[in-house]
Amino acid sequence: MIKKILVIILVHVAIISNAQEGTSSPYSFYGIGIPKFKGTIENRSMGGLSVLTDSIHLNLQNPASFGELALTAYTVGASYRNFEFSNATESSSGDNASLDYLAIGIPAGKFGFGFGLIPISSVGYELDKTETDGREVRFKGVGGLNKVFIATGYKVNKKLNIGLDLNYNFGNIENKTILKRPGVQFDTREITSSDLSSFSLSFGVNYKTMISEKLEAVGSAVFTPSFGLKTDNTRNLATVIISTNGQERIIDTQEVQVENKDIDLPLELKLGGGIGEPRKWFAGIEYAYSDSGKFSNIVSNQDNIKYQNASKFKAGGYYIPKYNSLTSYFNRIVYRAGFRYEETGLNINNSSIDEFGMSFGVGLPVGRLFTNMNIGFEYGQRGTTNFGLVKEEFFNMSVSLSLNDKWFREIKFN
Q: Residue 344: left (phi > 0), alpha (psi -120 to 50), or beta?
């Protein structure tokens, strides 16, 4: 079993490493791309809450949750995204799909352990700009940043869990610029490739207590310190001829020295809480703060771009009519909903790029034990059509499988 899981993880790593483009947003041009949601479909369907932990589901946003596991849990998720971009004069649309995560959690007494793979950011844009002198500049970028994590959680007592995860972050981002000048036979192409790598860690705490016979209060905190992301940059300049079908024929090429520098990725602190009846309903809120004012682009700095400290506000919850119903399948379905508002920290043309999303989803029992399939939907907006910027509207449909089993059983002799 373990050997099969390791093979699946290696295949997943290879797929994500070589096909990381999980966005088509023009805002992925900046920094290290658009941040990806680093949690499960269950979390995402509740506005992205990281507050909840239980004994059968993985919570990839808080390592303390692994101390709560009673069964071995493994999960995989994927998303389909439909989007539309618009500015003051025109609009366009498209779609893409991506693998979101693969993770496994294993209980071991008061400890729980987990490991897996999650994309952190995604780059995927194609932009055209025409200057007043007739020059045309085309920008294209692909790639992103991923992390492989190992996490452990410890159940201090019935109410308190603590946890730690260690991450190896890796990826590649390629930015291409093509300059076409009127009256000039050849075009100029510049390709900058950045290999990214670093180690990071996060600390998590989760606390639960019954405040009445039925009601339970939950609180959680996750702290991720700032860490340096190493970049290994290469740049190639070439004179090219571009055919009508987009093929590039190189006339002349040369390598250019470019500085390798570390980027300080910001610290993040998440605080959340909520109240509910276990295995019946829950409602919670969460606030996340990110010290992103010191962040900078990988390759180039532009005068109209700056970074500010970022904040996220989330609210959501779930409802189960009757989790142990033997007569109605629909009574055992988990219904989830939530919304979020994010100040991303990116400021362009003195305008903050903010994001809003509302989500809902269901958890459908399938198979044996507590195995379930989760389906989530999210509608959101990013940016604005003011100040010469682009407004992005998107619709996500996500699907995950959450499987449970008991690997270690006590052997008894008569």
A: alpha
Whether 341 contacts 380, CB under 8 Å:
no
pTM listed for this prediction:
0.88
All residues at 6 or more sequence positions from 76 whose CB lies less than 8 Å from its CB, including other chains: 12, 99, 101, 102, 103, 400, 401
Amino acid found at 72: T
In the chain, the N- to C-terminal Cα span, in Å, equals: 28
Contacts of 369 (CB under 8 A, 6+ apart): 71, 404, 405, 406
Q: What pLDDT does 306 receive? A: 86
Instruction: Look at the alpha carbons of 250, 254, 255, 257 in this order and tell me if their dihedral is positive or negative.
Output: negative
Neighbours of 294 (CB within 10 A): 12
- pLDDT of 152-164, one tens digit each? 999 999 999 999 9
Question: How many of the other CB atoms lie within 10 Å of CB of 97?
Answer: 10
How far apart CA 155 and CA 184 sit, in angstroms, is 69
Mean pLDDT of the chain: 87
Q: How many angstroms separate the CA atoms of 278 and 413, rounded?
A: 36
What's the token pair of residue 389? 């910027």
Q: What sign has the CA pseudo-torsion 115, 360, 94, 354?
A: negative
Cα distances (Å, whole numbers) of residue 183 to 8, 131, 133, 135, 244 = 53, 15, 11, 10, 17
Which residue type occupies 144? Answer: G
How many whole angstroms separate alpha carbon 230 and alpha carbon 225? 16
Beta carbons of 153 and 111 less than 8 angstroms apart? yes
Query: pLDDT tens-digit profile of 267-298?
Result: 999 999 999 999 999 999 999 999 987 666 65
Structure tokens at 310: 């970022």
Cβ atoms of residues 354 and 310 within 8 Å? no
Cα 361 to Cα 278: distance, rounded to the nearest angstrom: 19
Q: Tell me which residue of 254, 240, 204 sits closest to 50, measured CA to CA.
A: 204
Asked whether residue 130 carries a pLDDT value surpassing 90, the answer given is no
What integer pLDDT is reported at residue 406 of this predicted model? 66
